[in-house]
Write a structure and sequence with these properties.
Length: 288
């Protein structure tokens, strides 16, 4: 519980996105799971957020190697859209976040009651790292807007993973949306993969993260035009730096696949149209 002697800690950042977008990126669960970590070896696989006075939130925070995890939750005391969030943590400590529009930028100031287990420096550093990660994420999404796709498949996630990534079955499920697609390379963290259409146009990615049967994150680093690798020009600008992630979970023997594509507006409609077709075929193959 807090007392009159509670120490308040403040962290802050200025994000190069309008306040309406900053608010959305900060509060929507599908965004929270992408930025809510202080270091690369932690993540937030689940976030629930009832953003209203009296509403509750719960973020599940875990080490990526599965060695440790905890729930971070509380109740909202005050909510003013695009301006203020105040909440009480489950242990009674208070947190307040102010959003201030500064033209096309947004300043966030976060003040929280200190706990007694860790030093003030460690606490400030951890909260600042999360806020810095939010800044990085929000500014990235202002360029490469995220698209979300998900499907539940009546098969174990191991089967879904193998079917999705195996070179031969990859050709089968992608044919529903992108006929003749194939890839070259190895699915391994740090490696590169090349994805081609029949005329060898396509993209080249680097696997930033690859945890078998759980998660894969790829960043596009080049494009191909009929077999020629290109890293400059208008086409390259619409792809290089964009990312896509694949998350696999399982409950009661059924797999859930969640896909996030961070892509420029140039390609969004194509994927909105095509991913449901491809995922429908993947489901059909896995459940056969």
């Amino acid at each position: 519980m807090t007392t009159a002697n509670t120490i308040n800690i403040t962290v802050a950042t200025t994000v190069n996105v309008p306040v309406e977008k900053a608010w959305q990126f900060f509060t929507a669960p599908q965004h929270i799971t992408q930025w809510n970590n202080a270091s690369g070896d932690w993540h937030t696989p689940k976030a629930v957020n009832d953003l209203q006075v009296g509403g509750k939130f719960l973020y599940r925070m875990e080490a990526k190697d599965g060695s440790f995890g905890f729930d971070f939750g509380g109740v909202y005391d005050e909510v003013k859209t695009n301006q203020l969030i105040a909440y009480s943590l489950d242990d009674g400590r208070k947190v307040k976040i102010n959003f201030t529009a500064e033209g096309s930028k947004t300043k966030l100031v976060e003040t929280f009651d200190a706990e007694t287990e860790n030093s003030i420096e460690i606490q400030r550093g951890g909260w600042q790292s999360i806020l810095d990660n939010f800044k990085k994420y929000a500014e990235y999404c202002n360029i490469f807007e995220p698209l979300y796709f998900s499907i539940t498949i009546n098969a174990p996630k191991g089967k879904v993973w193998n079917t999705m990534l195996d070179a031969e079955t990859y050709k089968q499920w992608t044919a529903a949306a992108w006929p003749g697609s194939y890839y070259e390379g190895t699915w391994k963290q740090g490696e590169t993969l090349c994805f081609f259409s029949p005329d060898r146009s396509g993209t080249k990615v680097k696997l930033l993260e690859h945890r078998p049967y759980t998660f894969s994150l790829a960043e596009h680093i080049a494009v191909f035009e009929k077999g020629t690798e290109i890293r400059e020009g208008e086409l390259a600008k619409t792809w290089i730096g964009s990312k896509e992630s694949y998350s696999f979970t399982e409950q009661d023997g059924k797999a859930r696949l969640d896909i996030v594509m961070y892509i420029t507006k140039d390609w969004q409609q194509m994927f909105i149209n095509d991913w449901p077709k491809a995922l429908g075929k993947l489901k059909e193959i896995c459940e056969a």
